[in-house]
Amino acid sequence: MNDTQITVQGFVGGAVSLRRAGDSEVATFRLGCTPRYFNRRTQQWVDAPTQWYTVNAWRGMAENVARSLTKGDGVAVSGRLNVSTWRADDGQERTNLEIDATFVGHDLNRGTTRLARNERPAGEEQPAPTSEHDDGTRGTESGSDAPTPAPGAPEWTVPSLDVGGSSAA
Questions:
Q1: 3-state secondary structure of 88
Q2: Pick from 18, 35, 36, 40: which is nearest to 27 by CA?
Q3: For residues 8 and 76, what is the distance between their CA atoms, to the nearest angstrom?
Q4: If we measure between CA atoms, which residue out of 28, 10, 4 comes closest to residue 81?
Q5: Nearest-angstrom CA–CA distance, 165 and 56
Q6: Closest CA to 73 of 6, 8, 13, 17
Q7: Is 19 helix (H, G, I), strand (E, B) or coil?
Q8: What is the pLDDT of residue 118?
Q9: How confident is the model at residue 129 (pLDDT cuts 50, 70, 90)?
Q10: pLDDT for the residue 146
């Protein structure tokens, strides 16, 4: 069974490794998933056996995964499932479950997280920085005003990534 798209939630089982594979970077980690279900007969929650996956995140996502995840983090992973079987030295057949990730994120059922956007490569157009006007509204430094929120509306901001020791916020 190969090329099956799945989404799995679980916990990072160990340190994330980051390595080069040809011209690309790949971050690899183990993901443990322990399904829970309610046994109506005993009226108790029961943990099913833990299923382990090896997750590979490629290219641009690789460094973000390596910098963001640590052992024990709750995560959700979506990607292509590759299943392979092999025979161990003891004669037993073993199965490897490997996910080539297209999405990796913290599981917000388990806690909170804060996004720090990647720095854009040189030459890519970036939005003009915003500034606060004397009347409390927000607009761009270039003078063209961005839409302002309604009075009393929450103000949404995204923290910037501090790269190179200087703060852009």
A1: coil
A2: 18
A3: 6
A4: 4
A5: 30
A6: 13
A7: strand
A8: 86
A9: low
A10: 44
